Amino acid sequence: MGDSNDPNFVLTGVMGWPVAHSRSPTIHNHWIAQHRLKGTYALLPVQPEHLHDAIKGLAALGFAGCNVTIPHKVNAMKMMDIVHPTAKSMGAINTIVVQKDGALHGFNNDGYGYIQSLKDVNPHWKADAGPILILGAGGASRAIALSLLEQGAKEIRLVNRTKEKAQELAQEFSAFGLGQVNVIDWQDRNDAMQGVSLLINTTNQGMHGQADLDIDIALLSDEAMVSDAIYIPLETPLLKSARLKGHLTVNGLGMLLNQARPAFKAWFGLMPEITPALRQAIQDTF
Ligand code: NAP
Question: In the chain, pLDDT over 70 holds for what percent of residues?
């Protein structure tokens, strides 16, 4: 960790409310220790009404930057001097990098983290291998869908319990002139699996403490990959049934770990790796 009076000490953290549950300090402090860097990554509990002051204070406090999480991802974007185009399209940031002159640059690495998590499991994965079915239309869905379109997905089938939210997302994405996003009724989710190359759960169903996702994957073809944004538990009931049916599965931990890598590189100057020791350190917090 080093001496915090050292001018080279790198201060970072995560702003959220509440934020105590965040695994990000475990991830970044693991890399700081692994690479014997001088710095720390702190929990920064910031109430919504104090977000502006907290963000404007980053440079004066000597922060290299920070992550922002729920409920600040949308509002924090409005306080940036420059927003990266992907974050702009997502309408939310998850990373702030303070520049030498104090300017604040906003990024969103959630989509990068998701794509990388697929490639970690299947290096040959291609976004245009076939239609992709996404369940859910919240924040995670928005980041994942946009990154799939940016990667060249030709057809996304979007299914959400509240259809209007899926329609809003699809309409927003149509303005980008990328692939097609087709909204499908929640009641037709099982039929929508026919012919897809990838099924993704971005709802909170199947998460620890929540009901299981009400779904039947019988119509999924054998080659389809199945992924879940959830990482507690590591294997959701959806992923378990998919694994038992012979599908390649991807859990949400890879997304969480991979989104942290570019932020760490921006603040500390090196791209960290996801090692078995890091995975274990996170799993020890579950
Ligand atoms: P969110 O914005 O609150 O969206 C929640 C989604 O779940 C909505 O689409 C919602 O549908 C749906 N949902 C909730 N209850 C449901 C039910 N009973 N039946 C069917 N659908 C239901 O949340 P989020 O931020 O997108 O997060 C979603 C999940 O992704 C969480 O489990 C979160 O932990 C995970 N996540 C993981 C990562 C990662 O790094 N791995 C990152 C972000 C999020 P309605 O619109 O109908 O309410």
Answer: 98
* Residue spans of the chain under pLDDT 70: 1-5
CATH topology identical between 10-108+256-283 and 123-247: yes
CATH 3.40.50.10860 correct for 10-108+256-283: yes
136 lines ligand 1 (CB under 6 A): yes
**Domain ranges in the chain?**
10-108+256-283, 123-247
> Rounded to an integer, what distance in angstroms lies between the CA atom of residue 72 and that of residue 22?
14
Pocket test for ligand 1, best of 202, 212, 249 (most atoms within 8 A of CB): 202
- pLDDT tens digits, 43-68: 999 999 999 999 999 999 999 999 99
Task: Find where tokens 């949400």 sit.
Answer: 252
Nearest Cα to Cα of residue 80 among 109, 59, 50: 59
Q: Which amino acid is at 132?
A: I
> What is residue 196's predicted lDDT score, i.e. its pLDDT?
98
Tokens of 183: 């909204």
pLDDT at 6: 78
Per DSSP, 178 falls in state -
The reported pLDDT for the residue numbered 7 is 74
Sheet of 132-135, strand order: 180-184, 155-159, 132-135, 198-201, 225-228, 248-250
* Alpha-carbon gap, residue 139 to 91, rounded angstroms: 10
Contacts of 123 (CB under 8 A, 6+ apart): none
Task: Tell me if residue 73 is catalytic.
Answer: yes
Do the strands 132-135 and 198-201 form a parallel or antiparallel pair, or are they unpaired? parallel
- Distance, CA 151 to ligand 1 centroid (Å)? 22
- Domain 123-247: CATH superfamily is NAD(P)-binding Rossmann-like Domain (3.40.50.720)
Give the integer Cα–Cα distance in Å for 114 and 83.
20
Helix (H) or strand (E) holding 271: none
